[in-house]
Structures are given as structure tokens and as C-alpha cells.
Amino acid sequence: MSMYSFGSGYLFGTRTDVANSTPQLFGTLQDVSVEFSSTSKQLFGQRQFAELVARGQGKIQCKAKMGQMSANMFNSLYFGGTVAAGQTALAISEAGTVGTSPYTVTVANSTTWARDEGVFYVSSGLPLQLVASAPTQGQYTVAAGVYTFAAADTGAAVLISYAYTVAATGQTLSLVNPQVGTNPVFSVDLYTHATTPSGAKYAVLHLYACVASKLSLATKIEDFMVPEFDFEAFMGTNSKVFDWSFNEVS
């Protein structure tokens, strides 16, 4: 019988170079491409066309695009860093009014303030300048979530952006610069299927060993971010490269 496939399928990756690694699902999968290619050598004589062609080195290159982002998946299959509880959040354009002696604004998340992201005047939209001390009009200093301005800016409405930590929710992926050649190794299962009048058709492609070469993130106005994940397959510890299983004998 003939085999068919429809849709993006399902893609799973499982790290194999560490014990008890949790399989990772590529969530809201958009598309997957798997390309088998190889070099070839031609033997020529006195005639125009080759007398013999032999296949040389081969490679399997893959791409996957997904709608969901996962710190655990990105770390397990690409970075090989650490994932810890807690997150860093951003407050964007938090409104404040410069007080009178002291000429300060204390942001809402001052107790967990992490870093400054800039201050703007509401009236003009112009940015204020960060200085180390003794700010004059149009300048400010900041420490531990307390923003200090000049006396000349008393009563000015400002918009403050800053980062702050949230220990109780979320997670953070961190990476310390690794040695060259250090990377996660993972296996992949690609499940594809189609429904036909004669029943369901499906196939499972298992790649024994893979290494990711690219993870790209691109934002677009009025559209979702769709991360792209590129990886290559090679020989696993059992000398196998892949198995491709079909539920029909063709």
C-alpha cells in the first residue's frame, strides 16, 4: 500500500549524553524538514559523461519550527546549561512623579529591583540621563529601586523601566561560557501521519544521535514568535544512524 503524510507531525527530542533525561516535545509544531544528502565522485574517461559514480560522505540536516517556547527544551537540546526556579521580569514605563525633598521615586518592585532600563519624561517623551551622583535637571541616579532626580524636576511625571526578580514563579535558563566542543547530544523521533479511506497511515523516523547547530528567535509586529531549531544527525553509540518505521508494507 502507499504511504501518505499530512500536517507537521509530532517531534520529540531526548538528550542521550546524560542519564534519565526527560523527553522534550516541540510544542505547537509548525513544520519540520529532514534532508538526506551526500557528496559524489565521478570517474571520467575520454567521453563526456561519467563512466562510474560513487557516493562519498553523507549528512542529515534537519530544521524544525515551533510555536511554543520552553526553557527546559532549549536547555536540554541546545545549551546544556542550568534551569533554576525564579525569573527576572521587566516593568515597562511604570508611572511615577518626582517628589519634593527628597526628589525621588521608589518603584513598585524596589525590594527585588535588579537593574535600570531607563527613564523618560511623560510630557516630552525625552529620556533622562543616568549619572553617578548629584543629578541636575534631566538627570537621575538609582540605587536599590530608588530613583533620585534634581530639585528642578520636582513634580515631573516620569516613566521608569527596570528589571526585577520574582522568586516564586517562572524559571531562568543560565549558561556559563562552555569549552568548544561541549554540546548536548540527543535522539529525535518524528511522527507523521495521514487519514485515508483505507485507514490511518503513519511513520516514525528515529535519529539516534543529533547535535543542534542553531536556535533562532525572531519577533514580528502582529505575529507570533516561531523559534527555529536546526540540527544534524550522526552515528549513535550502536553504529546506527536512523530507523524509519512505517505501518504499511509498500
How large is the share of residues in beta strands?
over 45%
Shape from CA axes? elongated
Roughly how many Å is the radius of gyration? 28 Å
Helix content: under 10%
Broad structural category: mainly beta
* CATH topology category name of the largest domain: Pnp Oxidase, Chain A
- Counting DSSP H or I runs of 4 or more residues, the number of helices is 1
Domain count: the total is 2
Number of strand segments = 15
Which key terms come to mind for this protein?
mainly beta; Pnp Oxidase, Chain A; 250 residues; four-stranded mixed β-sheet; eight-stranded antiparallel β-sheet; elongated; 4% helix
Describe the 3D structure.
This protein has one helix and 15 strands, in the order E-E-E-E-H-E-E-E-E-E-E-E-E-E-E-E. It is mostly beta strands. The chain folds into two domains: 6-81 and 176-246, Pnp Oxidase, Chain A (Roll); 86-170, no CATH class. The strands form three sheets. Strands 1, 2, 3, 4, 12, 13, 14 and 15 form an eight-stranded antiparallel β-sheet that branches. It has a four-stranded mixed β-sheet with strand order 6-10-9-8, with no helix packed on it. A three-stranded antiparallel β-sheet has the order 5-11-7.
